[in-house]
Amino acid sequence: MEAFLATPVGILALTVAKAMALLVPLLIGVAYLTWAERKILGAMQMRKGPNVVGPFGLLQPFADALKMLMKETIIPSGASRALFLMAPMITFMLAMLAWAVIPVNDGWAIADINVGILYLFAISSLGVYGIIIAGWASNSKYAFLGALRSAAQMVSYEVSMGFVIVTVLLCVGSLNLTAIVRAQSTVWFIIPLFPMFVIMFISALAETNRAPFDLPEGESELVAGFFVEYSSMSFALFFLGEYANMILMSALITILFLGGWLPPMAFEPFTWIPGPLWFILKICFCLFVFVWVRATFPRYRYDQLMRLGWKVFLPFSLVWLVITAAVLKLAGWLPVVG
């Protein structure tokens, strides 16, 4: 068996098996995140949420998927057909590809590369292309305006996210995601870098087009934004891509600030719980806050959104980065790389 795994075919088979072991639970998680969001929002708004299809409405995601599959895919007559169909695929595939470097436990990553954080940042940046292509290929001024607004929003908040990530990297001295988690064995970075954690979380809301930054879905302004012309499974791929990106951003926040798979305290009973379960619980907590924010805050105006990103988060994150570097240098805490 070991000899087979050492061959190119064996390596490929092992990589595919690892990918399926990660992606199948992820896709089920995406489906049930939609159910959980509707249940949580229902509880917060004093109503029941999904409760008809299956016990407690647990089969509602499958009913929704069947409904989307049975609908007809309508392509506008003036649309660029190939690009119109490609855009939702790009959005969904990028949300899946990013998980290649996410370590669920110590050594549990499909590709534990040394530049994992750069890979993640690159994948999240490419998500803009799916939105721009969808807006342009629809041949509709409403979809195109929605795409431009959404792309400007994502690019604006990626700058602040970049400074947050650089601040964490200063404290670790490595671009490897496993090394970032191991560096938090003494104290999670949420404690010394709490302001950056807040900026990262709010930027993640804007990056995933979630409330209160869901400007692309401003129905009174843009009739649902860049995906206004989409229906059936092409619309569902955008929908699933958004929820997959929510889980991805929650995983990234967990790795950067919440200690990844590490327990909050290194003694019983916390050490009884396996690392992957801690990782999942932290992601679920972040996702709960995502939904909580949606139920609490009204939608921003576009000028408020841009002002927050460029005039508040960008200068603050830059100043905090400089302060962090100065403290690490003066205290002699800069990590030694080599």
Summarize the structure.
By secondary structure, the chain is mostly helical. Helices cover 66% and strands 0% of the residues.
Structure description:
This protein has 338 residues and is mainly α. The protein is built from 12 helices and no strands. Helix 4 (81-97) packs antiparallel against helix 5 and helix 4 packs parallel to helix 10 (232-257). The mean pLDDT is 88.
Low-confidence stretches: none
Q: Give the CA-based shape.
A: globular
Average predicted local confidence, pLDDT:
88
Rg (C-alpha, Å): 21 Å
Distance between the ends: 36 Å
Topology:
Layout: H1 2-5, H2 8-44, H3 60-70, H4 81-97, H5 116-137, H6 141-172, H7 177-182, H8 194-207, H9 219-222, H10 232-257, H11 275-296, H12 302-330
Helix pairs in contact: 2-10, 2-11, 3-10, 4-5, 4-10, 5-6, 6-8, 6-12, 8-10, 8-12, 10-11
Entry keywords:
12 helices; 338 residues; globular; single chain; 66% helix; mainly alpha
